[in-house]
User: Which sequence fits this backbone?
């Protein structure tokens, strides 16, 4: 997969749904991940968890990302995944800084227990069969506990095929600058592929990450607000200005149609609205239209509103940096 494309689509809670992945597929044929899936929920086969394993007709290759801190739960959870779908990769999240994940000792909380990381990777690997296993980590819990090299070594020794490294500590969240020097250090020492992650939003940041020597990049928030970013970067262009307003309008209507196919009842409109607002950012008068979009509860009225808006502006390139 790395040879076919150095870019991966990140698992994003509330975003990496079957319908949004289908939108990304309009611009990208590489690996995309599901949202994070609870290991404990998979064991129980709860409907609220199994929904995260729903796929669409373009989900290939698809990675599944799991989270959970109990090593003994992983073999059964992995078996449920493999009995349900055919993933290209299974990944374990060890970097999520969200409080409700940390409270269960999952996500980035796992960075504080290297012994348990070894047990988790070993247990998951035992059930994966021929499906590659990877992990996603951060540099460490905080500046005083940087341990990415130690964890990467554990992952290698326990049979993982790759490690995705977000270039911040848990304490840094998504603030401050990505530590490219540490990502380069990780790559220079690692005996398995390293995927760089963090703030890849344009050609400059993409090249900054590639210049660390890593084997590939994982794009998260950049994909969320500009799903065409993969095609733009592959064409050596910034995503800002890549789509003209006609194509952007068509994409917005496509997103609503995909969401309608994926969601129940009129709820798909509420899900669609966040994408509409994200994608329109930077267009003339888009900020003033934002509240009207959020308040509209009727598809036909929303369609008319968007048609009138796009017919009122000139066909200029999108520029999401202007607002």
Assistant:
């Amino acid at each position: 997969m790395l040879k076919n494309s150095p870019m991966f689509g990140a698992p994003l809670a509330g975003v990496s749904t079957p319908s949004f992945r289908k939108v990304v597929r309009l611009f990208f044929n590489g690996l995309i991940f599901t949202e994070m899936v609870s290991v404990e929920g998979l064991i129980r086969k709860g409907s609220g968890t199994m929904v995260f394993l729903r796929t669409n007709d373009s989900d290939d290759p698809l990675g599944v990302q799991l989270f959970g801190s109990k090593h003994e739960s992983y073999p059964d959870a992995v078996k449920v995944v493999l009995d349900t779908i055919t993933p290209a990769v299974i990944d374990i999240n060890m970097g999520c800084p969200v409080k409700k994940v940390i409270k269960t000792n999952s996500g980035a909380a796992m960075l504080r227990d290297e012994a348990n990381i070894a047990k988790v990777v070993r247990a998951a690997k035992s059930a994966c069969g021929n499906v590659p296993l990877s992990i996603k980590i951060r540099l460490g819990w905080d500046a005083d506990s940087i341990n990415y090299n130690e964890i990467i070594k554990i992952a290698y020794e326990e049979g993982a095929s790759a490690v995705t490294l977000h270039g911040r500590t848990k304490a840094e969240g998504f603030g401050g600058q990505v530590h490219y020097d540490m990502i380069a250090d990780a790559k220079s020492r690692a005996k398995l592929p390293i995927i760089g992650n963090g703030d890849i939003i344009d050609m400059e940041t993409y090249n900054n990450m590639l210049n660390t020597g890593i084997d590939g990049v994982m794009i998260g928030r950049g994909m969320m607000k500009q799903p065409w970013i993969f095609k733009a970067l592959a064409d050596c262009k910034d995503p800002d200005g890549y789509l003209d307003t006609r194509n952007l309008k068509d994409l917005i209507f496509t997103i609503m149609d995909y969401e309608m196919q994926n969601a129940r009842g009129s709820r798909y409109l509420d899900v669609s609205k966040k994408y509409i607002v994200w994608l329109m950012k930077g267009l003339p008068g888009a900020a003033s239209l934002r509240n009207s979009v959020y308040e509209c509860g009727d598809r036909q009225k929303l369609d008319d509103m968007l048609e009138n808006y796009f017919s009122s502006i000139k066909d200029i390139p999108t520029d999401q940096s202007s607002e």
Remarks:
- The mean pLDDT is 93.
- The chain has 15 helices and eight strands.
- The beta strands are 7-9, 32-38, 62-67, 89-94, 133-138, 162-166, 194-197, 216-219.
- The radius of gyration is 20 Å.
